[in-house]
Amino acid sequence: MKNSSKMPAVNGKISIAPSILSADLCHLGKDVARVASAGADWLHVDIMDGHFVPNLSFGPALVRSLKANTDLPLDVHLMVTNPRNFIEPFAAAGADLLTIHAESQDDTIQTLKAIADLGVKTGVSIKPDTNPAVLKPLTDYIDLVLVMTVYPGFGGQAFLESSPAQIRSVRQIIQASGKQIWLEVDGGINAKTAPLAIQAGADALVAGHAIFSSADPELALKQIRQANPEI
Ligand code: DX5
Ligand code: ZN
């Protein structure tokens, strides 16, 4: 059966996607329910293969459990060298969006087409040192660009100072394409850095450490949302 993605189309609002990488994995269901009731828009799930990035995280089994336990769209970020090997299992597990890295080894357009054929929304991510021009040939194939605002692999790092310029370049490419494409940012987002990302053109924000390492995740999420001058 085809996956039927819950990921919404671009809607002019800022979406917030808590990253469960920083959640308490012994109480994951409780942490997810807390951010859902605090108004999270999507749930960000970081998949790491120990090769594309120097860390390991989760597999399709976790996505399957999340799917059965939350209505939030599952925004799955594949930090893996060969994403083509993993899109079917993650689609079958219930991913609503699969984001692959432009720097991965598989053919990007072929992999994006294969994701779309499974009924899943498509994303491409770029690392901080990648020239955003790589996105220009991809805009017909993607629903989302994920701009890394830290070097991928770990939660809790600081938002890189070079990020606003990178986000602005990506926003220009999206605008020039005339397509409705989300611009999501990932890494070091908190109530202080969220406005910098939004002003540069982001319309979706991943936040892990700032939400789940807070004593009050609901408040932390609301503070990030309130940092958006448009809401
Ligand atoms: C980093 C991951 C991020 C991470 C963000 O490689 O892709 O999604 O969870 O975490 P924070 O918000 O703590 O920087
Ligand atoms: Zn991520």
Characterization of the model:
This protein has 231 residues and is α/β, with parallel strands linked by helices. It is 32% helix and 18% strand. The protein is built from eight helices and eight strands. D-xylitol-5-phosphate binds at residues 19, 21-22, 44, 46, 77, 150, 152-157, 186-189, 206-210.
SSE sequence, one letter per element: EHEHEHEHEEHEHEHH
- Unreliable segments of 5+ consecutive residues: none
Q: Structural class given helices, strands, pairing?
A: alpha/beta
SS strand fraction: 15-25%
Percent helix? 25-40%
Query: Overall pLDDT, averaged?
Result: 97
Oligomer: single chain
Strand and helix map with partners:
Elements: E1 15-18, H1 28-37, E2 43-48, H2 60-69, E3 74-79, H3 87-93, E4 97-101, H4 108-117, E5 121-126, E6 144-148, H5 163-177, E7 182-186, H6 194-200, E8 204-207, H7 209-212, H8 217-226
Helix pairs in contact: 2-3, 5-6
Zinc ion binds at residues 19, 44, 46, 77, 186, 206.
TL;DR?
The protein is α/β, with parallel strands linked by helices and 231 residues long.
